[in-house]
Specification:
Blueprint lengths: L20 E3 L4 E4 L4 E6 L2 E2 L7 E2 L5
Antiparallel strand pairs: 1-2, 2-3, 3-4, 3-5
């Protein structure tokens, strides 16, 4: 099942309540403010803080 990009209009980061961006290659929702990545499982975003993975952004 593919992720429905229309969900980006209604979902938010559970930590900061900020905007999330969809990363198609890794199938994750990214919060740039908190530098966290939330997995998408079977087309459903798992927006749980304890399931988020830290991301390292290249400088």
């Amino acid at each position: 099942m593919a992720f429905d990009k229309k969900l980006l209009d209604i979902v938010a980061c559970p930590v900061c309540k900020g905007k999330l961006e969809y990363d198609k290659t890794t199938q994750q929702l990214i919060c740039k403010a908190d530098k966290l990545a939330y997995p998408i499982t079977d087309g459903i975003p798992v927006l749980l803080e304890n399931r988020a993975l830290p991301i390292n952004e290249a400088v």
